[in-house]
């Protein structure tokens, strides 16, 4: 633990990874009763990437995204102090971050998983900022990765059409407080509505022949989502969260250059932008190619926007995630 002098923090590099297998809406309509027309008009999704190799796991995507970010930052993995893996689909319930730490050679890094579903990357970044601003660590790798194709019921057309697999990563570094690029953030949880979106654990009696001892064991079920309720929650809470962050940094919607929202549904992106009176040109959207990649969606969209030279120095970038929990959160960054 170092001094508690308040420092600034900055994203210095990003990376992303997607599986090579592509499933189009037309191919999806051979799996469940649906159509390209329904999926495109209700969600904006045209295709998604799925991890199909038995030997591959979320770790492969997370490692590849992390290595890309490290390379872009010209950083030796041994310089990473902390790895935060935001995921709801780890390859190991005890956590996958430590495997990633070993595989990328980040031998000096502490590593842990963080579960906040589709808000995971935002919560991960906010967590990283705390360690950087208090000068505890200098370099933090935040990864958002999910392989929800392994958790959806492939006979449930209301969910399986939505999700895709991916990983995105960002290296966040402490800097002088004058150059701090994190202008404000706000994260929220409302557990009252947790049942609207879940992968719940179902227990059944596991009989043991030891006296009256009763033990329950079970398994995780598939993704369940009350789509309409989650939709209403997203379009009502996300604009409020963004407005509250803007106010905290003495800014207005006119100051926003780019809106990088969780890529769940094109209609949600448009509705949020309309509520805030932000031009649709400022919305970063790539969900037509990848579907909803949960914790990976924001870093994947951010990484693509950077590769396409959309985001420039000093731009005001608003990042907002929302999803299961229910959780939601916003970060305002000066790039
Ligand atoms: O990442 C976490 C955050 N998640 C989200 O933000 C998701 C938010 N919710 C949504 O994006 C939308 O609610 C969905 C895209 C999931 C669903 O769109 P919707 O307009 O709310 O559709 P719905 O669930 O109300 O279903 C409308 C109809 C139903 O038929 P009936 O009852 O009207 O006869 C469904 O059975 O569409 C039917 N339907 C389908 N039809 C063809 C549901 N899924 C499909 C499908 N293909 N894949």
From TrEMBL:
It is found in: Plastid, Chloroplast. Pfam families: ACP_syn_III, ACP_syn_III_C. Residues 112-191 form the Beta-ketoacyl-[acyl-carrier-protein] synthase III N-terminal domain. InterPro entries: ACP_syn_III_C, ACP_syn_III_N, FabH, Thiolase-like. The active site is at residues 118, 262, 292. Belongs to the thiolase-like superfamily. FabH family. Homodimer. HAMAP family: FabH (MF_01815). This is Beta-ketoacyl-[acyl-carrier-protein] synthase III.
């Amino acid at each position: 633990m170092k001094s508690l002098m308040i420092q600034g923090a900055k994203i210095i590099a990003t990376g992303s990874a997607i599986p090579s297998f592509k499933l189009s809406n037309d191919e999806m309509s051979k799996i469940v009763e649906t159509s390209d027309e329904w999926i495109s008009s209700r969600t904006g999704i045209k295709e998604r990437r799925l991890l199909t190799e038995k030997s591959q796991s979320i770790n492969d995507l997370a490692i590849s995204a992390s290595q890309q970010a490290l390379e872009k930052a010209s950083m030796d993995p041994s310089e990473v102090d902390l790895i935060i893996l935001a995921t709801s689909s780890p390859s190991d319930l005890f956590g996958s971050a430590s495997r990633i730490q070993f595989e990328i050679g980040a031998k000096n890094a502490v590593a842990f998983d963080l579960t906040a579903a589709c808000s995971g990357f935002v919560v991960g970044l906010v967590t990283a900022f705390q360690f950087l601003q208090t000068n505890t660590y200098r370099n933090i790798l935040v990864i958002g990765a999910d392989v929800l194709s392994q958790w959806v019921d492939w006979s449930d057309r209301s969910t399986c059409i939505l999700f895709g697999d991916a990983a995105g990563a960002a290296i966040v570094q402490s800097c002088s407080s004058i150059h701090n690029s994190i202008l404000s953030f706000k994260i929220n949880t409302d557990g009252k509505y947790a049942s609207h979106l879940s992968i719940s654990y179902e227990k059944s009696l596991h009989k043991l022949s030891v006296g009256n001892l009763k033990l329950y064991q079970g398994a995780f079920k598939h993704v369940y989502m009350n789509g309409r309720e989650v939709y209403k929650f997203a379009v009502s809470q996300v604009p409020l969260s963004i407005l509250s962050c803007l106010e905290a940094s003495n800014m207005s919607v006119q100051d926003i250059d780019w809106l990088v929202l969780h890529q769940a549904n094109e209609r949600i992106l448009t509705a949020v932008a309309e509520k805030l009176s932000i031009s649709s040109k400022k919305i970063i959207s790539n969900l037509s190619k990848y579907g909803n990649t949960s914790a990976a969606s924001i870093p994947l969209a951010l990484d693509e926007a950077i590769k396409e030279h959309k985001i420039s120095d000093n731009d005001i970038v608003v990042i907002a995630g929302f999803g299961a929990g229910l959780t939601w959160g916003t970060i305002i960054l000066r790039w």
